[in-house]
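Trying the structure run again after the queue cleared.
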Amino acid sequence: MQIIFYSLYIMFSGIVEEFAKVVDVHRDRENVDFTLTCSFVKELKVDQSVAHNGVCLTVVRILDKEGHVVAPYSDDAYAYVVTAMKETMIRSNLGDWVVGTEVNVERSMMMNGRLDGHIVQGHVDQTATCVAKVDQQGSYTYRFLYAFDPEMAKRGYVTVDKGSVTVNGVSLTVCNPTDDTFEVNIIPYTYDNTNFHAIEVGTRVNIEFDIIGKYISRMTAYL
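Done. Tokens:
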């Protein structure tokens, strides 16, 4: 008798579906419950994973407009609730969220389709700060600054030219990287349909470095 074990991991592609809006923030000791609304609320179910600005969070409740719990897929579904732990709050920009904040959202990747972005885990590594935003007459160039750690860089926590990086859950190509900065170029569609239109100089964003680079860096340490 042959026994086959399957390992299932939640993955994302970095292709944001839309932005959701925060409609309530509730702190419970070290945890924070965020209530959000978006167009696909009626398609969500409890225990489903959704990336929020690149952070993988689990749906814990589905609510109607009055804030009452309703069953998944209900016609009355208006919003959903996710819970962020202390570690998530420390590593990400979720602490900046208030009622009205626009959050990039993406449901987990279906394995029967094309991977249009790159492999995104939804495990944010750290935050970065926008230090420049340049209007390129049709598109925008952003420069982000992040805390550089040489030891972490050796483990793949670094950007490389023409490599991939996830910014607020958006899969992007790196341009002109330095030790602690990188640039990305945003086309009008991405600007209008994600929360990049709300990013200005001084805005904190979530970043996730490329998992393939992390694996390569880890393996080469044993060569």
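The first helix runs from residue 86 to 91. Worth checking whether this holds up in the mutant runs.
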